[in-house]
Amino acid sequence: MIKELFEPHISSLIAGLITGFIGWFFGRKKASAEVETNQIENAEKLLDYYRKMVDDLGLRLENSIIRFNAAENTIRELEEKIDRMTDELKKYKQLNGKLE
């Protein structure tokens, strides 16, 4: 009696197990491929992020160099002005009879 009860359902059970195994087997490969694809996409996004950061740092460096050169020129001009004013002061002192 138990045999007659389970016998018609055994083929369905076996077919279900085989279908489940095949689905799991190929699904595993698909899931693995999707994970790898996601990792590649994340690496590309990270690379793009760092590329933008490096480009930004490059622009900042160029701007800093330009500002540094301008400041260096201003300092050179001020040093020349101080030298001229020092020379004028020496001449003024000499005219007033005050020698150093």
TrEMBL record:
The chain crosses the membrane at residues 6-26. Keywords: Coiled coil, Membrane, Transmembrane, Transmembrane helix. It comes from the Bacteria. Residues 61-95 form a coiled coil. This is Cell wall anchor protein. It comes from Epilithonimonas xixisoli. The lineage of its organism: Bacteria, Pseudomonadati, Bacteroidota, Flavobacteriia, Flavobacteriales.
